[in-house]
Amino acid sequence: MDKLTLTILETSDVHGYLFPGDGRERDQNMELGLFKAATVIREEKRKADGPVLVIDNGDFIQGSPLTSYMKRERGTAAPIMDALNMMEFDAGVPGNHEFNHGLFYMMESVRAAKFPVLAANILDETGEPVTGKAYEIFEKDGVRIAVLGLVTCYIPHWEHPDHCAGLTFRSAVASAKEYVPMLREIADVVVVSYHGGLECDLETGEPTEMLTGENEGYALLTEVQGIDALLTGHQHKRIATVKNGIPVIQPGYRGEAVGKVTLELEKQEGSWRITGCNARLEEVKGKEADLVLAEQFSGLKGEMEAWLDTPIGGIVGEMSITDALDARISGHAYVDFINRVQMHHSGCAISATSLFSREATGFPPSVTLRDIVINYLYPNTLAVCRVTGSDLKEALELSAAYFELDPAGEIGINPAYIQPKAQHYNYDMYAGIEYTIDLTRPPGDRITVLIHDGHLIKPDETLEIVLNQYRAVGGGGYHMFGPSKITREVRVPMTELIAGYFKEHPVVMATQNRNFEVIRSGFGSEEDEVPDLQLESRA
């Protein structure tokens, strides 16, 4: 009786972090990066007792200083696909961030891949998979392995409509129910590589987020018969487990680990059967970056580092961030500066922005492109939305849900903004209005003061707000905005707009507007208490 072990290795959400650093300094050696993952993959291939399949699960060409350099200076991310080619990946799946710069930009990278890029549930105008293939059949050591590629169908809720024009985004579950039975007939093993996450707790089945369709991994596990292994991503979580006999992995992000599934196979009556399985994460911690890859891309790294060190302007005053939570509670000169840039380039009197992560550092006295890129990683452009006073208050209420009070009355972060995926970017801070968030009131009723231009904002009052494109189209659950409310756009990436502002104003004064406050009336002194002003309709 024939036996063998099939090993499946996964990277996901690398976001262009090829080198072992986050770009904040030159010549870092952090425990991350594709080139360290390459060392792990090489070692796993060497010790494998049977065939090995290597798959990248998407979000590869956007999200790092390197990818910012590639977009702005090279105009293409195709050259960095050579890293995956040199590592001899067997297959890939596009992620949602592959769409950030438009379909042409993404497809350049797809064409540069020397392996099939699979997307069964994203269809072009002809009804075919946009990347050309839905699945691939591999034959290794006599075993026929089907790999089905799926992508979160929520992309149109985040992207500019132009980036999705002519495309149809189907539910990953609906597409899997169509393809998996067919693949089951022609393959010994069916692997689903899904750039999406898990919407429910794997143990209890209880939802861990709003069931919007963004993540359908749990439904794939429980509603689709015939899947032998599920590779996931998108949430940047670290998962390695077995559910309903199906190994499930998600290897974090930035190449910090490689997901590994092993399937024990036996040949019974002429066909292969799975007799055992395992899932684990192989850490890159303690590994050295692959020397051949590092040398091959050393020239590109040098170009990127020189670009990042380009001087941009100066700051008078304090614009560095030492405590991101405090900055969100009390406001910060860096946030006010980003709002100032947005208002300047849009001609809008009201602006909203956010701190994208806990690692945001703000700006030092001498600002370089490096400082801009590490603080503003996303390729956002700007859009102006025309909304009502009620829309604005609803948006502020949603932002205010970011906070919660502990039993002692201390301000903390709502766990929903941390798990299953950190979403600090979904808390916005505004300029051009004055407002108060009272955390002793229930979510949805926390905005007690809302003023613009010296008067309480009326529910039916019309206002224009400049937002980044992600928020303007309703990203992050901000359905009070949306494409129908966009009146004009600034189609230049924010990193360039920030640099352009410095070109016009080489020296910037660090100022803090102090136009909002987050309070805990009822805790501490009576000075904490404020009157309930709200919108005029609540008077």
TrEMBL record:
**A Gene Ontology molecular function term of the record:** metal ion binding
What Gene Ontology terms describe where this protein resides (cellular component)?
Answer: outer membrane-bounded periplasmic space
**Locate the Calcineurin-like phosphoesterase domain: which residues?**
7-237
Co-factor(s): a divalent metal cation
Q: Which residues form the 5'-Nucleotidase C-terminal domain?
A: 328-481
Q: Which residues cross the membrane?
A: none
UniProt-listed GO biological process terms: nucleotide catabolic process
> Reaction catalysed?
a nucleoside 2',3'-cyclic phosphate + H2O = a nucleoside 3'-phosphate + H(+); a ribonucleoside 3'-phosphate + H2O = a ribonucleoside + phosphate
Q: Does the keyword Cell inner membrane apply?
A: no
| Major place of residence | other
Q: Which UniProt keywords apply?
A: Hydrolase, Metal-binding, Multifunctional enzyme, Nucleotide-binding, Signal
Instruction: Give a single Pfam family match.
Output: Metallophos
Q: Where in the cell is it found?
A: Cell envelope
Source domain of life is Bacteria
PROSITE patterns linked to this entry: 5_NUCLEOTIDASE_1
List the InterPro entries hit by this protein, alphabetically: 5'-Nucleotdase_C, 5'-Nucleotdase_C_sf, 5'-Nucleotdase_CS, 5_nucleotidase/apyrase, Calcineurin-like_PHP, CpdB_N, Metallo-depent_PP-like
Q: What family does the Swiss-Prot or TrEMBL record give for this protein?
A: Belongs to the 5'-nucleotidase family.
Query: Which PANTHER family does the entry mention?
Result: 2',3'-CYCLIC-NUCLEOTIDE 2'-PHOSPHODIESTERASE_3'-NUCLEOTIDASE, 5'-NUCLEOTIDASE-RELATED
From the Swiss-Prot or TrEMBL record, give the protein name: Bifunctional metallophosphatase/5'-nucleotidase
Q: Record the organism.
A: Bhargavaea cecembensis
